[in-house]
Amino acid sequence: MREIKKPTTFEEQVQILKSRNLLIENEDNAKHILSSVNYYNITGYGYTFKDNDVYNNISFEKLYRIYLFDKRIKSIILYATEIIEHNLRAKLAYTIAHNHGALGYEDVNNFKEIKEHQILMDKFHKAIRKNSKLEFVKHHKENYGGKFPVWVAVELFTLGMILNCYKNINRTTRKNIAEMFGTGPIQLESWIDCILYLRNMAAHYMRLYRVNIQKTPKRCNKNCPDFIPKNKVYDIIYIMKFLMPDPKEWNSYIIPSLKTIWTEYQPDVMFKDYGFSDNWLQELKIK
User: Fold this and answer.
1) Per-residue pLDDT tens over the stretch 44-65
2) 229-259 core/surface letters (b: 16 or more CB in 10 A; e: else)
């Protein structure tokens, strides 16, 4: 086992990077950046440029610009994911309510696996306790004996809980919800799972640049028969468009936001670094 390395000053960190062939033109600026962006974080973006722990003469400024791009694209992903999450909540609640009644999510008979349903309910009751001061939670505890109709309950569901509920609900309900998105239940489950995975990466500040993602969305022959995954971030961004409730929001905000950052940060960041195709503008547009 190696010994844990000793802490270094910002000045020492700059010298270490220079000794590894990282080009640093302005040392004061580099020290300033390292004082606000952790050394381990920013140097992670140089991983693919290293050979035997030595950088191939790339610049610190390039690494910083890659870091900034990664941060910008993650903010766009998080914004889109929030919209999708609300859309999934609404359709999940509506379908369960009309198929099984206001409290149908509580009935284990509407689900395939007893254990998975219990896990969902445990998480839900924990969310109630955690959010006990929220007005709608107090209202239903005081006026309805702590019973929450599904259209209220889903407001306490995380995206992970939405996925768990959808995976475990009976076949008919799964199919009904999937039809609302123009796809099948196997595809929808895969898409939610992938979006959850990417959302968690973005929310926990994990690097997306040149990362081979571990989850691949399943292809839907109905609405994306030509989809060929590349195990990159773009795979999941691509299927996000099928879960957006408002095409105008996607076409008029999400796509232009992506276009803006691509224009600003090229050539330091290239389409292939995230799996984007040269034709991505046309591919992502909702028609």
Assistant:
1) 999 989 988 899 889 999 999 9
2) bbebbbbbbbbbbbbbeeeeebbeebbebbe
